[in-house]
From TrEMBL:
Protein name stated in the entry: non-specific serine/threonine protein kinase
Chain ranges passing through the membrane: 247-272
Compartment annotation: Membrane
Native source species: Zea mays (Maize)
InterPro entries xref list: Kinase-like_dom_sf, Prot_kinase_dom, Protein_kinase_ATP_BS, Ser-Thr/Tyr_kinase_cat_dom, Ser/Thr_kinase_AS, SPARK
Enzyme class: transferase
Domain of life: Eukaryota
Catalytic activity: L-seryl-[protein] + ATP = O-phospho-L-seryl-[protein] + ADP + H(+); L-threonyl-[protein] + ATP = O-phospho-L-threonyl-[protein] + ADP + H(+)
Annotated EC: 2.7.11.1
Positions contributing to ATP binding: K348
Gene: LOC100194105
Length: 655
């Protein structure tokens, strides 16, 4: 201790007495110790005080910025907004506070650095982010206690019951999102219009931030919770395969010692590997043939389908002549053919076939052959063959519909207008066919590609639902979430197009679009000049919500029906195409309304959550503003209710 005090004394004190020799040595070492002290460099600023750093943990965000990355500004802004909400939920879990310390530094710069793409010049409306994060953004709600005081225990109990679970399953995520939407609409969004803002500190985001921190058992950083509440998908785990470096090094060093021995070893290895590759290819081909044979045998065993030969189909279609083509699509061509017994058929011939696609072909044959209904196209048989000239071939044979498709009669040039009784028969036939797929078939079948060209008409103009190439089995009514969205622009439901969420009500949406086409004579989607577009569902809703429902009906329709009945059909089409999945009826409910002699059941159509004429960017902004992946309506969640059969159908202006 004495030595330490001596070292700390001033170096030059001439009036002091001379020190003993040991003390002098210590005194001489003092400049050396002073040189060991770190000297701050002029170009290296001192580290900021922890109190001046952004309080959000941006490191926790990095695992959730999974590819593919958004390419347009609207999507990038949505991800940025949801990212801040996610980080606020982590902050709330750690501090029980919705707001950041007032002396925290800017969070916008770290956000820009964390995101793997540049934000738009407008910064997505985040320029005032720091001030907003440091003050209550939803009324006076600053802490968990404030939120608990504002939202009553009953509603918080619903949130806990719905969100206190693993949210990886779509039904569980939907239940949680519904509970959050109800709480937001009832207790947080009833104030000023600013409470409905889409920014991260607005009341729209607070329920999701609260649920991630307080209700979720795994916290907001759980991949399923982050995806359900904030639409942030975690990076998939990367597999690390063991390298072959030791073997390579062994061969390299061995080659230096014994070149001739290595050459012999490599020669033997090449011969063995070539033989193994040949044997593996033969085994794979045999396995593929076995699986294809098993698939075809299972189809033949469970149905009465005819297995046509390639020569039979070629003769029936006059050698696949161009004049025999009656339809074309991404899958290939449809030919008109005449079988040996004189029966007229339609032959669907797939293009770019290979043996690897036989499983998908077997799926379609299985789907079509498993259902029989007067409003579904019946399958006569199939053909699978390999020819030397044309390669692998796959075809299905169906009954020929002489009146073509609904698209031909609505939009083909020179076609006569359909009379109202014919349109009414077609609408009910479509609804019956789809209702059977959803409830009559076991397991239930989701068509996925309902459109006017897939509604065929027989000699009596009876509708037949066709083309099951994209159909999906839905066992036990479970929701199907697909990473690859399939369908046709203008007919695909919003939740399926945006999130890949596929349910039976995705077909209901497509049915509603076709029904509106049938009633109005207008196409579902038309691209206009200057980036504008005509969306049939938005146009119809704009008329319905103003009480001008009858104006949706095509002008000059032959033999029009009673106005109330035609308006009923328009309202069913508007309800079936509602952007909110749970606001739509089932196909059974829609069919019941259409078949009723009187105008049935009070049918209040909830207000739509997006502008009447919306582009894709507006739909995405509306979907992302809820923070839960659910399309949001200011009026709150309201499901379709079919009360009784004697009340009246009403539009929004009638209530």
């Amino acid at each position: 201790m004495c030595r330490l005090r001596l070292l700390l004394r001033p170096i030059s004190r001439p009036h002091l007495h001379p020190l003993p020799p040991p003390m002098c040595r210590l005194r001489l070492l003092l400049p050396f110790f002073l040189l060991l002290r770190p000297i701050p460099h002029a170009s290296q600023p001192a580290a900021p005080s922890p109190a001046l750093q952004c309080a959000l943990n941006f490191t926790a965000l990095l695992p959730f910025l999974a590819p593919p990355l958004p390419s347009d500004d609207a999507s990038r802004c949505a991800v940025a907004t949801q990212s801040v909400a996610f980080l606020l939920s982590l902050h709330l879990a750690a501090t029980s506070s919705f707001v950041l310390p007032p002396d925290a530094s800017s969070c916008l710069s770290p956000l820009r650095a964390a995101l793997p793409y540049p934000l738009p010049a407008s910064a997505c409306g985040l320029s005032g982010l720091d001030a907003a994060l440091a003050s209550p953004g939803c009324g006076n709600v600053s802490t968990v206690a404030d939120f608990d005081a504002l939202v009553p225990p009953s509603s918080r109990g619903d949130i806990d019951a719905s969100c206190d679970r693993d949210l990886s399953a779509v039904p569980d995520c939907t239940a949680c999102s519904t509970a959050l939407s109800k709480a937001a609409a009832a207790y947080l969004l009833a104030g000023s219009p600013s409470a409905r803002s889409n920014n991260v500190t607005g009341c729209v985001q607070y329920p999701s931030i609260y649920a991630g921190a307080e209700a979720s058992p795994h916290g907001p950083a759980d991949p399923a919770t982050a995806y359900c509440l904030f639409l942030l998908k975690a990076n998939p785990p990367q597999s690390h395969s063991s390298g072959a470096a030791p073997w390579v090094y062994g061969v390299a060093f061995g080659s230096l010692a014994a070149v001739l021995l290595l050459a012999a070893a490599l020669g033997c290895c090449f011969v063995v590997r070539r033989r193994q590759a040949r044997d593996a290819a033969a085994a794979l081909a045999a396995d593929s043939r076995s699986k294809r044979s098993q698939a075809m045998e299972s189809i033949s065993a469970s149905t009465t389908l005819v297995k046509f030969t390639y020569d039979d189909i070629k003769a029936a279609t006059d050698g696949f002549a161009r004049k025999s083509i009656i339809g074309q699509g991404g899958f290939g061509n449809v030919y008109k053919g005449v079988l040996r017994d004189g029966a007229e058929v339609a032959v669907k011939r797939f293009k770019n076939c290979s043996a690897a696609g036989d499983a998908a072909f077997a799926h379609e044959v299985e789907v079509v052959a498993s259902v029989r209904h007067v409003n579904l196209v019946a399958l006569r048989g199939y053909c699978i063959a390999t020819t030397q000239r044309e390669g692998h071939q796959r075809m299905i044979v169906c009954d020929l519909m002489h009146n073509g498709s609904l698209y031909d009669h609505l939009f083909a040039a020179g076609e006569c207008q359909l009379a109202w009784p014919v349109r009414q028969r077609i609408a009910i036939g479509m609804a019956r066919g789809l209702a059977y797929l959803h409830r009559g078939a076991q397991p239930a079948i989701i068509h996925r590609d309902i459109k006017a060209s897939n509604i065929l008409l027989d000699d009596e103009f009876e509708a037949k639902v066709a083309d099951f190439g994209l159909a999906k089995f839905a066992p036990e009514g479970m929701t199907h979430v697909s990473t690859r969205v399939a369908g046709t622009l203008g007919y695909v439901a919003p939740e399926y197009a945006l999130y890949g969420q596929l349910t039976e009500k995705s077909d209901v949406y497509s049915f509603g679009v076709v029904l509106l086409e049938l009633l109005s004579g207008k196409k579902a989607f038309i691209s206009l000049s200057e980036g504008q577009s005509f969306v049939l569902t938005d146009w119809a809703w704009s008329l319905v919500r103003r009480g001008r429902t009858v104006e949706v009906i095509q002008e000059g329709m032959v033999d029009p029906g009673p106005t109330k009945v035609m308006e009923k059909y328009v309202l069913v089409g508007a309800l079936c195409t509602h952007p909110q999945l749970h606001a739509r009826p089932t196909m059974e409910q829609a069919l019941k309304i259409l078949e009723a002699d009187s105008v049935p059941s009070p049918l209040i159509i909830p207000e739509r959550p997006i502008p009447v004429v919306a582009n894709l960017a507006e739909i995405e902004r509306s979907a992302s503003s809820s923070g839960s992946g659910q399309l949001f309506s200011p009026s709150g969640f309201r499901s379709f209710i079919h009360a009784n059969e004697d009340a009246a159908l009403v539009s929004p202006n009638d209530t």
